Amino acid sequence: MRDLWIDLGAISQNLETMRAKVSGAKVMVVVKANAYGHGMLPVATHLDDAVDFFGVADIDEALELRAAGIESPILAWLHDPNETFEAAVDADIDLGIATVEQLNRVAEAAKTCRQKARVHLKVDTGLGRNGASLADWPQLVTSARAYAELGLIDTVAVFSHLSSTSEQDDLEQIQRFDHAVSEAKDLGLEFYLRHLTASDGSLNYPQAHYDMVRLGVAIYGLSPFSDHGSAEYGLVPAMTATSVVVQTKRVAAGHGVSYGYLHRTSAETTLALVPVGYAEGLPRDASIWAEVAVNGKRYRISSRIAMDQFVIDVGDDEVKPGDQVVLFGPNAEVGPSVDELARAGDTINYEVVTRMGGRFKRRYLNQKAKD
Ligand SMILES: *Cc1c(COP(=O)(O)O)cnc(C)c1O
Questions:
Q1: Last residue of some domain: 191, 224, 257?
Q2: Are residues 132 and 51 part of one domain?
Q3: What atom in ligand 1 is closest to the CA of residue 198?
Q4: Beta strands per DSSP E along the chain
Q5: Whose CA is nearest to atom 10 of ligand 1?
Q6: CATH code of the domain in which 89 resides
Q7: Can you tell me the distance from the alpha carbon of 290 to that of 105, in angstroms, rounded to the nearest whole number?
C-alpha cells in the first residue's frame, strides 16, 4: 500500500542526457546514501556497463557494491578515523585521501594486501569540508609521490568539490584547483584524472569538466538548482511515490482533523486516510502545504502529517478506499513534483528523495533484461 516506483529507464536516459552535456568527460555516477533513496544495488547493477565510475561516501557502501558483483571502478571518500583501508584495497576500491596520515595507513594496507592502492588526492579549494588545505597540499603530494615511487599506490586522480555559493566563489575554486594541479606537477606528480564538478557545476561550468564529472542528483532526474526545474535540462525524475486511500468517512462541519487540529472541516465533507507518514520520509514540515493527487485531482494535506499517516479533506468528491494516491511523480499529469513537496516542506529535492523509505516498497521499472 506504499510504493516507490523507480524508473531505471529514466535513470539510463538521464545519464545519456548528461553525457551529451559534459563534452566527452568521463562520468562518475554517485550512488551514496542508497542512491539518493532510489536503491543502491538495483541502480548500480543497472548502470554497471554504462558508467566510468561509481561514487560513494563510505567504504562500507563500496564493499556492498563489490559484494553484489559491481565491476566498475568505485571511489569512496569519507573515512572512519580508525579505518585501516585493508578491506578497501583488497576489494579494489579507489580511495579519496585528504591527509598524509590517511595516506600512511593506505600504504600500510597496500603492503599487507600486496596490492597497489588506488588513490584520488583531495584538495580543499574552498568548501571547507574534507580535503587537504592549500597549505598542506604540497606535503600530501610529496608523500603520495614517494609512495607511488615505492610501488605502493597509484595516484589515479586529483579532485575537489565546489561550494555552489555564487558564480564568483565557484570560479575562484576552479582557479585554485588549476593551481593545485600545476603545483603537483611541479612537485613531480601527475594524475590520470582530474575531477571537480557535481551536477550543478557540470551544468554551469563547461570549462570545469576536466577529465571526469561526478553526477548524483541529475542522474535521478532532479535539478540541482531550486530556481530551475529538471525539465529545463531534459532530465526525467526517476522516482514516483504512491500509496492508497485506506479509509474514508463523512464527517460534519467543525470536525477537527489530526494532531493539533491544524484543519477543521468547514462543511460536511469526506475525509480520506493515507498510510504514509514521516516514518516514510514525508517531511512533517510539509503539513498544511503539500499536495497529493487522487484520481487526477490535487488535494492539500491540510492537517498534521503524523508518523504513519495523513488525512486529506476531499469535500464531496467520490474518493474511496483503494484509490491510488500520488505523493509525487515525474510530471504534472501524474501528480505533484518532488520539487513541490520539497518547497512545501521547506527543504530541497535531494533531501526528499534521499529520506524516502520507511515502509515504502521499491519497485523497479524498465529493468534491463539479464544477459
Ligand atoms: C554527493 C556528492 C556528489 C554528487 O552531487 P550532486 O549534486 O548530487 O551531483 C559529487 N561529489 C561529492 C564529493 C559528493 O559528496
A1: 224
A2: yes
A3: 9
A4: 2-7, 26-30, 53-56, 74-76, 94-97, 117-122, 153-159, 193-195, 212-215, 239-244, 247-251, 256-257, 263-264, 269-274, 291-294, 297-300, 310-315, 324-328, 361-365
A5: 198
A6: 3.20.20.10
A7: 49
Q: What type of residue sits at position 132?
A: A
Residues 259 and 135 in one domain: no
Q: Clarify whether residues 360 and 211 are in a common domain.
A: no
The parent domain of residue 101 ranges over 8-224
304 inside domain: yes
Helix axis angle, 40-47 to 8-21, nearest 10°: 60
Annotated catalytic residues are: 32, 259
What's the total number of domains in the chain?
A: 2
Distance CA 36, CA 174 (A): 26
- pLDDT, position 86: 98
Report the nearest atom of ligand 1 relative to the CA of 199: 9
**What is the rounded distance in angstroms from the CA atom of residue 209 to the CA atom of residue 201?**
8
Task: Tell me: do 31 and 81 sit in the same domain.
Answer: yes
For ligand 1, atom 15: residue with the closest CA: 57
Residue 220: the pLDDT is 98
- The answer to whether residue 231 sits within a structural domain is no
Residue ranges for the chain with pLDDT beneath 50: none
88 in the same domain as 207: yes
Question: Distance between CA 314 and CA 270 in Å, rounded?
Answer: 6
The CA 170 to ligand 1 mean position distance, Å, reads 15
pLDDT (0 to 100) of residue 371: 55
- What is the distance in A from the centroid of ligand 1 to the CA of 113? 30
Cα of 214 vs centre of ligand 1, distance in Å, is 6
Distance CA 351, CA 23 (A): 29
Shortest-distance Cα residue to atom 13 of ligand 1: 161
Helices and strands in the chain, H and E counts: 11, 19
Q: Residue 368 has what pLDDT?
A: 81
Where residue 307 sits, what CATH number does that domain have? 2.40.37.10
pLDDT of residue 370: 62
Q: Which helix (H) or strand (E) holds 159?
A: strand 153-159
Are residues 171 and 45 part of one domain?
A: yes
Q: Take residue 323 and report the three cell numbers written for it.
A: 484509490
- Establish if 371 belongs to a structural domain: no
Return the amino acid letter for 18: M
